[in-house]
Design a protein that fits this description.
Structural class: alpha/beta
Oligomer: single chain
Helix content: 25-40%
Radius of gyration: 17 Å
Strand content: 15-25%
Distance between the termini: 35 Å
Number of strands: 9
Low-confidence stretches: none
Order of helices and strands: HEEEEHHEEHEHEHEH
Largest sheet: 5 strands, mixed, barrel
CATH superfamily: Nucleoside phosphorylase domain
Mean pLDDT: 90
CATH architecture: 3-Layer(aba) Sandwich
């Protein structure tokens, strides 16, 4: 990761906004409704930002949104980048480096996932408490720039216990049902086989998906506190009774998205701070 490239991206963004973001949010497939809640919104297309990748996946708008929710200044990725699109890992996670230099201290990352845990149902919201990187690839591979973070970062608390506790309390206040679970990351873009899902279950995975973990790893490396929330959009292969279709995933994400947006909005609201 070239520090100078990140600085160029940051300088361009700072010219478009007033103030500095405290929080960062990454929106998963079909979960873009949260961007509608941002006040004093400034929308910056990815294609306008120097060195930013561009995503062409359905359900990902491809904008960086700056503004406020509940008095909290934030920067939001309305669409993310995936390894399966052909991006390198440093491109997938590039926005995290930009967020860090913009001033972001906390990250909320959301996704659409396949449910492995038999207690889950499509539409359920899951607080991530840990992950399994089954991709065989680390986004930190290659040379390290100590200005960003240490060569060998600790991952004993990938998702902030403090933020999880706050999210649980707020969900209780709002009467939003949720589960806690472990997310397993695969490269994609193909869905998993039934045999793979059985193996993942034995490894301790509750969910499976094609994002989130690279961003979580880099955010931890950069010293950001991370909260992960997944939306179960379908049950995984061998558990589901129908074949997978991205359109169905999007439909379920849209339906559950309103509850997720209400939850995240309250988490970001500084009046609910611990």
């Amino acid at each position: 990761m070239r520090y100078e490239h990140v600085l160029e991206s940051v300088c361009y963004i700072r010219k478009q906004i007033v103030g500095a973001p405290k929080a960062g949010v990454i929106l998963g497939s079909g979960l873009g409704c949260l961007a509608e809640l941002v006040k004093n919104r400034v929308v910056i297309p990815y294609g306008d930002i120097p060195h930013f990748p561009r995503s062409g996946i359905a359900g990902h708008a491809g904008n960086l949104v700056y503004g406020e929710i509940g008095g909290c200044p934030l920067v939001m990725m309305q669409g993310r980048f995936h390894y399966y699109e052909g991006f390198e890992m440093d491109q997938v996670t590039y926005p995290l480096f930009v967020m860090k230099l913009l001033g972001v201290e906390q990250l909320i990352v959301t996704n659409a996932s396949g449910g492995i845990n038999p207690a889950y149902r499509p539409g359920d919201l899951i607080l991530l408490e840990d992950y399994i990187n089954f991709s065989g690839v680390s986004p930190l591979r290659g040379g390290n720039d100590e200005r960003f973070g240490p060569r060998f970062p600790d991952m004993s608390e990938p998702y902030s216990r403090e933020m999880i506790s706050r999210a649980e309390r707020i969900a209780g206040d709002l009467k939003i049902p949720f589960h806690r679970g472990v997310y397993l990351y695969t490269q994609g873009p193909n869905y998993e086989t039934a045999a793979e899902i059985r193996a993942f279950s034995r490894l301790g995975a509750d969910l499976v998906g094609m994002s989130t973990v690279p961003e979580t790893i880099v955010a931890g490396y950069l010293g950001l506190k991370v909260l992960g929330i997944a939306c179960v959009t379908n049950m995984a292969t061998g558990i589901a009774t129908k074949k997978h279709a991205h359109e169905a995933v999007m439909e379920t994400a849209d339906k559950a998205g309103r509850r997720l947006c209400t939850w995240v909005q309250a988490i970001l609201d500084e009046r609910t701070a611990i």
